[in-house]
Amino acid sequence: MKSVVLMFMLLMTSQVFAQPFKNADTAAGKALLEKNCISCHAASFGGDGSAIYTREHRKVKTAKGLMAQVRNCNTMLDTKLFEDEELNVAAHLNKTYYKFTE
Question: Rounded distance, CA 89 to CA 58, Å?
């Protein structure tokens, strides 16, 4: 019985890691991005700022890295986003630009 429970827990854990943005609100993330991030990105990269996500040598290579970068920006700019809001922003960016599945 213990092995069945352990296998179930491992399966559930792997599903969480396989879909890191599953429970995020991408519409809320888009609104937060527009409110808190776009002006800095546009000032740094021109246009609408989206070049930061699509540049050839971008820093973000994984979903975990995307979450870390959103958290870093939140901390450095003191935007005071909560963790769920950081997740929403990352989910929007992932849906729009990155397309990470894990």
Answer: 17
What domain range is 44 assigned to? Answer: 20-98
Instruction: CATH number of the domain at 69, please.
Output: 1.10.760
The model carries a pTM of: 0.79
Distance CA 67, CA 91 (A): 9
pLDDT of 55: 86
Q: Do the beta carbons of residue 26 and residue 88 sit within 8 Å?
A: yes
Q: How far apart are CA 90 and CA 1, in angstroms?
A: 38
Select the more confidently predicted residue: 77 or 5: 77
Q: Is 71 exposed, middle or buried (0-12, 13-18, 19+ CB in 10 A)?
A: middle
pLDDT of residue 51: 87
